[in-house]
Amino acid sequence: MTEVLRIENVWKSFGDTPVLRGIDLAVDSHEVVALIGASGSGKSTLLRTINLLERIDDGQIWLTGVDVSTPTTKADAVRARIGVVFQHFNLFPHLSVLDNVTLASRQVLRIPRAEAEARGLELLGRIGLAEQARAFPDRLSGGQQQRAAIVRAVATNPELLLLDEITSALDPELVTEVLDLVRELKDDGTTIVMATHEMAFARDVADRVVFLDRGTIAEQGTPAEVFGAPREARTREFLSRFLG
Amino acid sequence: MLVSLASTLVFAIITWLFVVNTPGWAVVQQRFFSPEAALVALPRVWDGFLLNIRVLLVAVAGVLVLSTIIAALRTLRGPVFFPLRALAAGYTDLFRGMPLIITLYLVGYGIPGLIGTGGPRIPSYVLGTIALVLTYSAYVSEVFRAGIEAVHPSQRLAARSLGLSHGKAMRLVILPQAVRKVTPALMNDFVAMQKDVGLISVLGAVDAVRAAQIEVAADYNYTPYVVAGLLFVLLALPMIRLTDWYTARLRAREQIGGIV
Fold it and tell me: What's this model's pTM, rounded to 2 decimal places?
């Protein structure tokens, strides 16, 4: 197994508020890691530091064996190798769905438009949105928008996919279609780190569950371990609030 | 519909009767609204007006380019870019405060002064265009900046996450959305600009206003000014209507699902 991501002793504060306090995490190729924890536990911040959207205060981050936390790192090049999907989709409203999906291929990877669009249409076809390729995002339902956003994130074949609570802003009946797509990506061998509140989904799809509590990793293990027999009291407390 | 028509008609008649019955109307009519004088002046005023239109087109292009650059400079982050940000901020402060006519004089007489008597002579309409671009870019860059800041930060985040550089994120994602947001305000500034183009006459450029002035001086009839003024109004009307229409359309789009 090759290691896609390695995080060592990562610290991050916003002002005087520590958000990440010495995080260590390694993710292997084809692995799906679910980050769970209360709001404010540092899940989203951790994802953003991996993508270099937040500068870390201390520690190191390696992407496929290369240290990307040095000051000389070309952040744009690193981000191009990582796909991100956000809670609120963040599709570009002035571009068609297809242009959203192909933007990075054309502008960052410099793939010719025809080629990028052929792949974009194929991907959109796979999620049943080929018909809406030329439509603008506001014509799509929330679930369709989020699936288009996922396709946008994977269109460049990133080495790592980060999902930041991608179902939290969706109506309950639209969650399934989005999660089904994530499951398909897992089956294709995509390496995924996802922050989620969907415990059932994490249990079902994740290879490993990481419980974050106030900026530290309190516990991690297979879903069976973390959900079935949590070792830490705070994990048990968190899960009891969630699972009832 | 009938009521509004009738009330407009009555109002117009009352106003007309009032103006016509003022003691000086006969003289004013002769001095300002003489059809003969208008016909005599029209060809020259029209020639001057064509210069106004040329200056306007060039100035609009110049303003769009310069103001976009200024606005983009002002949104740069990080301490490294402080000098550029400060320069851009100083520029907008200076030229938004400075009366256009002063800028016209400073550019119109200052630049030839800097070049010196030995250098090439720059036509006054070129200097006037430069002054217009300087002044209006200061306003329009603020409009653009407001638009850029109105685009939600998550859009920038999403763009950068795809690996787009700051510049590309700006050009491909942020600016297109910013421009859409501020188009009505932008069009309004260009309506204002198309009439201020007449001010280049103070530098001696023979535009519509200057041509009218020359005609007026010939026989002390002010009708050519009215002719020039009407030409400017005619030029502005399509733009004004377009602005109204576009603003209404935007409002309608945003209000889909009820007006509350």
Answer: 0.80
